[in-house]
Structures are given as structure tokens and as C-alpha cells.
Design brief:
heterodimer; A: about 55 residues; B: about 230 residues; 7 helices; globular
Chain lengths: ~55, ~230
């Protein structure tokens, strides 16, 4: 009984860890896209102010 | 419209729910429908999770090799994203095969490990998986990484027939195809189908994520010089 519980426990623990890792990477990915968007907006604003100055 | 937010479509919810129902039914079948084996008792139920993991470990490697061939023919990194996805999940399943098999062996044979042909060839497969993943982690250039992984994955398929046929070609301790009660056989089949569906669903989600991670890296490389110029 304990052996069976250990086997099923290991499998589900591994699945939970894999899904948690995916969720963490998804959060990191979301932050990267947000940072990219703000960088792009900043460079566009700089371009616009340069154009106005010219 | 905010493109950075993760949106979950109805199709994803429906497919995810179906996968959960399938998996839940398989677990119910394993513990409520399948009879308890007389010799090994409850420990025999390890088979219902060990066999699907072993099958998925082999399937993952085959898909990885096909993706490798796809990359070598087309030089398209989308194939490499599938290779990485199957590498990660296949390695996980292969590790779980060895772990659950070891627990089963402890109950059935009184030892955690034997250098039986099936166990040895499965361990070699695990080493090949690990080797490919470690090589990928150490190579920076995406195309070089994809090329090396593809060649290793294609060469690694030589171990697949050895794993599958080990119990028939060589004398060993691992059971070949034991006689099972029809309800046990049906539960095992259903469990294989349920876990295959679950891991296929996980693979599609991870594949999308790898694609987005690569897109973010590419965009980062394009935006940085612009930001520096500005």
C-alpha cells in the first residue's frame, strides 16, 4: 500500500512541479512583454519629441 | 487593447476540462474498477501509472526525433520548439518510469534496481534525454542548438527498438506481457489513453510558451538597439 502511495505521489508531485514551473515562466514572460512594450513606447516618444524639435 | 495579458479562450477551457474528466475517470478506474491482484496486492496498481509513463517516454523521444528531422529538412525553428517540448516532457516521463519501476521492483523482486536489459536500455534512454537537454542549455545560438539536438535525437532513436524488444531479445527479469484480468487490461488501456491525452495537452501549452519566449527574446534584440539610438 505504501509503495503504491509513493509511486502515485511521485508522479503527481512531478506533474505539479512541472505545471508550477510553466506558470512561473508564464509570469516571467508576461513581465518581459510588459517591459518590451514600455521600452518601445519610450523610444517612440523620444522619436516624436526629436521630430517636433526638428 | 492589452496584448500582454494572458487570455484563456473557451476552446482551451473545454479541452482542459475534458482532459481533467478523462484523467479523473482513469484514476477512479484504477482504484475502484480494477480488482486487487492476489500476489502483489495494492502495489500491483503501480502498473497503471508505470506503463503509461514508459509509453510516453518512448513516444516523446519519437516525436522529438521527427521534429529533429523536420528541422534538418526545413531549418525552421518551430520544429525545434516541438523538439524542446517533447524533450522536457519525455525526460520527465522517462524519469517517472524509472522511479515507479524501481518501486515496483522493490515489491516484486526485493531489490530497487537490477541491470536487466529492459531497465538498462531505459536508463540509456534517460541518459540520452538528459544529454540532449544539457547540450541545449549550453549552446547559445538557436540554429546551432537546433542542429545539434536534431542530430542527437535522430541518433538516439537507435535505443528505442532496444527498449521495446529488450524483453524478447534478451533474457531478463522484466515481465514480457503478463496475463491480466480483462478488467485490469481495460483499466490499463484507459489509463494509457488518459495520460497520453493529458501529456499531449501539456505539450501543446508548453509549445506555445516556448514560441512566445523565443518571440520575446527576438523582440528584445530588435528593440534594444532602437532604444540605444534614441
Amino acid at each position: 500500500m505504501e509503495t503504491m502511495a509513493a509511486a502515485y505521489g511521485i508522479v503527481w508531485l512531478a506533474v505539479v512541479l512541472f505545471v508550477t514551473r510553466m506558470a512561473l515562466r508564464q509570469r516571467k514572460l508576461q513581465r518581459s512583454f510588459e517591459s518590451l512594450r514600455s521600452q518601445l513606447q519610450a523610444s517612440q516618444n523620444d522619436d516624436a519629441s526629436l521630430a517636433r524639435a526638428a | 487593447m492589452d496584448h500582454t495579458k494572458v487570455r484563456v479562450g473557451w476552446s482551451q477551457v473545454v479541452v482542459g476540462s475534458l482532459v481533467a474528466v478523462l484523467l479523473g475517470t482513469a484514476i477512479l478506474a484504477i482504484f475502484c474498477f480494477a480488482p486487487t491482484e492476489q500476489t502483489m496486492g495494492h502495489s500491483q496498481r503501480i502498473v497503471y501509472i508505470h506503463v503509461p509513463m514508459a509509453w510516453l517516454g518512448l513516444l516523446g523521444f519519437m516525436v522529438m526525433a521527427v521534429s529533429g528531422v523536420g528541422y534538418l529538412l526545413r531549418r525552421n525553428l518551430a520544429w525545434d520548439h516541438w523538439l524542446q517540448t517533447c524533450g522536457e516532457l519525455g525526460w520527465l516521463c522517462c524519469s517517472l518510469t524509472l522511479a515507479t519501476g524501481s518501486l515496483w521492483a522493490h515489491e516484486a523482486w526485493g531489490t530497487w534496481w537490477e541491470w536487466d536489459p529492459r531497465l538498462t536500455t531505459s536508463f540509456i534512454l534517460w541518459c540520452i534525454y538528459a544529454g540532449i537537454l544539457m547540450t541545449r542549455a549550453s549552446v547559445e545560438d538557436p540554429h546551432q542548438r537546433a542542429r545539434i539536438s536534431a542530430v542527437l535525437a535522430v541518433l538516439g532513436t537507435l535505443d528505442i527498438p532496444l527498449v521495446v524488444m529488450a524483453t524478447r531479445w534478451f533474457r531478463g527479469m522484466h515481465p514480457v506481457s503478463p496475463d491480466m484480468d480483462p478488467s485490469m487490461r481495460m483499466t490499463l488501456f484507459f489509463s494509457v489513453v488518459a495520460f497520453t491525452t493529458f501529456f499531449a495537452w501539456l505539450a501543446t501549452r508548453r509549445r506555445v510558451q516556448i514560441g512566445l519566449e523565443n518571440l520575446a527574446t527576438q523582440l528584445g534584440r530588435q528593440i534594444e538597439p532602437q532604444a540605444n539610438l534614441a
